[in-house]
Design brief:
The protein folds into 2 domains: 172 residues, no CATH class; 267 residues, Vaccinia Virus protein VP39 (Rossmann fold, 3-Layer(aba) Sandwich). About 9% of the residues have low confidence. The chain contains 14 helices and 9 strands. Strands 1, 2, 3, 4, 5, 6, 7, 8 and 9 form a 9-stranded mixed β-sheet that branches.
Length: 463
C-alpha cells in the first residue's frame, strides 16, 4: 500500500540551585547587579521598539563572521550564567541585543534574538521579558499550520511514520488498528493515515467484489482508533473534532479518537488506555527527548505493557553530544545543541518563504520562538537525543528495517514539497536501512526509526 499524502488541516538539583542563586542575586544583589539587569532589559526593549516602529527596514545581513559572532556571544553568555557570573552573562547578552533582530533580514539575527530572550529569562531576569507577548493557542495553531505547509520538516516525519505504521498493520493480518500517540498535539499527523487506510480498504473491497458478484456497500470496514495524550482538554476536543470530520469523508473506515489528559498519575498511563485484544497496536513517539526522566520512565512502562507490534520514534538527530543517554543537569550542552538545531531550521525557513513574508514572521514568533522558550525553561533533568534509542534496546526492542518503499516515498515527498526551499533539504539514510533522517545542507535535523519487540525477557533492573 502506498501512503496517501493528505494534511486535512482546517481552522479550528545542582543546576536548579544555581538557577535559584542567580535569580536571588538579581533580585537581592547589590546595585551593580540590578543596574546591569536593568540595562539589559532596556536594550531588549529598544530592540522591540525599533522593530515595531521600523518593521520594513533592512537591518543588513549578519551572516558569515557576524553570524558566528552572535553564536559565540550566546554561548559565552550561557557559560557565564551557568557558573554564576551574571555580569559577564549580561554583558554578552547586551551585545547580542545590539545586533540581533526579530525581523532581521538574516536568519542568524532572528534566531539569536529568540535565544537571547530565552537565555535572559532563564539565567538573569526575575520574570520573563514583557515582549513579545505570550501567544494564544489559536495563534500557535495557525503558525504550526503555516509551518506545516511551508516546510517539509514535519511532513517528512509524519509521512515516514505513517508509511511504516501502514506496513505494520498490513503484516499483522488484523482489521483493527490502534495507534497510541503520546503527544498528539493538533493531530496533523493522522489525516494521511486515515485517508490511506480508507483507500486500501476500498481497493480490497473492490477486488473482492469483482470476483464474487456481490453487490452493495463493499467489504469489511477497517477500524482505526487513535489514543492521543495531550495537555489541554480543549485542544484534545478540537483535535478529535477535526479528525472525526476528516474521517467522515473516508468510506470503509470506522474511526474513533480517544483523548487522554497528561495531568493524571504518570504511573497509571496504561490503565487509562482502552486496549482492544483484536487490534494491532502501534506506538507513536514524536520528539520524546524533551520529557523529564520520570515522564520518560512512565512512558516506557506503558509501552512495554501495551506490547505493540511497532514503535515508531521521531526525534532530533544527535549532534554528537557526549551526554548521550545520561541526563544532563548542565544547561550549556542543551543550549548549544538547540542553538545549532534552530539555526538550521530558521535558515531553511528563510529559503522556503520570501524575505518579507508575514507568514514566516508568524511561524518564527508563534511556533519556533515558543519552542525555543519552552526548551530553555525546561527542567535540567532532560534526556539527550540518543536516550530513547538506547532505552528501547535495553527494554527488549530491536530496530526494524525501513522498507525501500518507505524510503522512496519519503524522497518523493521531499522532491514534491521542497521545491521552494532552494533544494537544501535532503534525505539521509543512517545506518543502512535502519534509520532515515531529514537534513538541511549537511546537518541532520530529525531522525526516524522503527522498533519492534525482540521477544526476550527484560527486567526493570535492565533499565
Amino acid at each position: 500500500m502506498n501512503l496517501t499524502l493528505s494534511l486535512g488541516v482546517d481552522g479550528g538539583g545542582g543546576a536548579t540551585a544555581k538557577k535559584r542563586k542567580l535569580r536571588d542575586d538579581v533580585g537581592e544583589g547589590d546595585g551593580g547587579d540590578r543596574a546591569r539587569v536593568m540595562r539589559l532589559l532596556q536594550a531588549r526593549d529598544r530592540v522591540a521598539k525599533v522593530e515595531l516602529d521600523h518593521h520594513d527596514d533592512d537591518h543588513g545581513g549578519k551572516g558569515g563572521e557576524g553570524g558566528l559572532r552572535l553564536m559565540r556571544l550566546l554561548l559565552s553568555s550561557a557559560a557565564a550564567g551557568e557558573v554564576g557570573d551574571t555580569h559577564a552573562a549580561a554583558v554578552a547578552l547586551r551585545e547580542v541585543y545590539r545586533h540581533a533582530s526579530f525581523r532581521g533580514s538574516d536568519p542568524v539575527e532572528r534566531v539569536a534574538a529568540y535565544f537571547a530572550d530565552a537565555l535572559a529569562s532563564r539565567l538573569l531576569l526575575p520574570s520573563p521579558p514583557p515582549v513579545p507577548a505570550t501567544t494564544t493557542r489559536a495563534e500557535q495553531f495557525l503558525a504550526l499550520t503555516m509551518f506545516y505547509q511551508a516546510s517539509p520538516l514535519y511532513q517528512f516525519a509524519h509521512f515516514t511514520a505513517n508509511q511504516a505504521i501502514v506496513e505494520a498493520f498490513e503484516a499483522s493480518g488484523c482489521r483493527r488498528l490502534h495507534v497510541v500517540d503520546f503527544d498528539v498535539s493538533f493531530g496533523f499527523q493522522w489525516p494521511s493515515l486515515i485517508q490511506s487506510l480508507s483507500d486500501a480498504a476500498a481497493a480490497t473491497s473492490s477486488g473482492s467484489n469483482d470476483g464474487s458478484g456481490s453487490s452493495g456497500g463493499g467489504g469489511e470496514q477497517v477500524s482505526l482508533r487513535i489514543t492521543g495524550f495531550g495537555a489541554s482538554t480543549d485542544e484534545l476536543r478540537d483535535t478529535e473534532a477535526r479528525l472525526t470530520r476528516f474521517a467522515d469523508g473516508c468510506p470503509n473506515l470506522r474511526f474513533e479518537f480517544e483523548g487522554v489528559m497528561n495531568d493524571g498519575p504518570e504511573d497509571g498511563r496504561h490503565g487509562r488506555i482502552r486496549v482492544d485484544p483484536a487490534a494491532a497496536v502501534v506506538v507513536n513517539l514524536v520528539f520524546p527527548a524533551a520529557a523529564s526522566s520520570r515522564e520518560s520512565r512512565a512512558t516506557l512502562d506503558c509501552i512495554r505493557a501495551l506490547d505493540p507490534s511497532l514503535v515508531f520514534l521521531i526525534d532530533r538527530a544527535s549532534d554528537g553530544s557526549p551526554a548521550r543517554s545520561r541526563k544532563s543537569e548542565s544547561l550549556l550542552p542543551r543550549f548549544a545543541s538547540s542553538l545549532r538545531y534552530y539555526a538550521a531550521v530558521f535558515e531553511s525557513l528563510h529559503e522556503c518563504l520570501p524575505a518579507d513574508s508575514a507568514e514566516r514572521l508568524a511561524i518564527e514568533r508563534d511556533h519556533l520562538g515558543v519552542e525555543i522558550s519552552d526548551a530553555m525553561a525546561a527542567s535540567p533533568d532532560h534526556r539527550a537525543a540518543d536516550y530513547w534509542t538506547e532505552t528501547l534496546e535495553r527494554a527488549g526492542f530491536e530496530g526494524a528495517r525501513l522498507s525501500s518503499r518507505t524510503v522512496s516515498q519519503a524522497k518523493l515527498l521531499l522532491k514534491m514539497k521542497s521545491g521552494g526551499c532552494g533544494g537544501g533539504f535532503r534525505v539521509m539514510e543512517d545506518g543502512g536501512d535502519m534509520a532515515m533522517a531529514l537534513g538541511w545542507r549537511d546537518r541532520a535535523l530529525i531522525r526516524a526509526t522503527a522498533w519492534r519487540p525482540c521477544r526476550r525477557s527484560v527486567g526493570k533492573h535492565d533499565l
